[in-house]
Write a structure and sequence with these properties.
Layout (H helix, E strand, L loop, with lengths): L2 H15 L7 E6 L18 H9 L4 E4 L6 H6 L7 H4 L2 H5 L6 H8 L11 E6 L9 E6 L1 H15 L12 H13 L2 E4 L3 H6 L7 E6 L3 H10 L1
Antiparallel strand pairs: 1-3, 1-4, 2-3, 4-6, 5-6
Helix pairs in contact: 1-10, 7-10
InterPro entries: DUF169
Pfam families: DUF169 (PF02596)
Protein name: ArCR
């Protein structure tokens, strides 16, 4: 099957098993402009990565370079630039009152998921319209949908699913970078930025599935 046919199948299975209010989103990092496939236009506004995920979940497909990324922390997490110094060293989050002291903030920021290599851009598309192999597929869903995705993994592995998150850098670090780096799947409850900017609802969460894990997830969903 072509990438588009495969992604349509993935989308059909996910939507048949999980009640969604928006499409699963396919994302792919691209190293150079020459790697950009045909049919994708540059996004025409400067917004945050999490907002781009939301736009794609509502039907848009496009690509972005660092120039269109409004949130530098998100862009740093997904590997389009170096992480801003005050985010990397914890000063920014400490100043926002998220931690009891700078040392605690630094402990967390040292453990954030950050793609180490640099990319020229990133493609976003609804999963059933993506004609490329996604690095990560992201699903915005209610907790019951997250439960079913966890069950899809447990079905074959017999091992409990894990969610690693801190309420910071959710759709960028937790749901993209962590599965991208580790070739796994991660569950996250969102962050203040994604809930405010990308309209992630109070009753929603996000799940990031790497290309290495998607077949296992789909097989599990079909079986349970």
């Amino acid at each position: 099957m072509t990438n588009l046919e495969t992604n349509k199948k993935y989308c059909e299975v996910i939507e048949s098993k999980i009640a969604l209010d928006c499409k699963p989103v396919a994302m792919k990092l691209i190293k150079t402009e020459e790697d950009l496939p045909e049919g994708y236009d540059l996004i025409d506004e400067k917004i945050r990565h999490c907002e781009m995920v939301r736009k794609a979940s509502l039907g848009d497909k496009f690509y972005s370079t660092i120039e269109e990324q409004k949130c530098l922390g998100g862009a740093g997490a997904i590997g389009l630039r170096d992480m801003p110094e005050k985010l990397a060293n914890g000063e920014k989050y400490f100043s926002l009152g998220r931690f009891q002291d700078l040392e605690t903030a630094q402990k967390l920021t040292a453990d954030l998921s950050i793609v180490p290599e640099r990319s020229w851009g990133i493609i976003y598309a609804p999963l059933d319209e993506a004609d490329f192999e996604a690095d990560v597929i992201q699903v915005i869903t209610k907790p019951v949908g997250g439960m079913k995705l966890a069950q899809s993994i447990v079905y074959k592995t017999g091992e409990k699913a894990c969610g690693m998150f801190a309420g910071i850098q959710s759709l960028c670090g937790d749901a993209f970078s962590k599965p991208y780096i580790e070739g796994g799947i991660n569950f996250t409850l969102g962050c203040d930025g994604s809930r405010k900017a990308a309209d992630i609802k109070d009753e929603e969460m996000a799940v990031g599935i790497s290309k290495e894990m998607i077949e296992e997830v789909i097989s599990g969903l079909e079986s349970i």
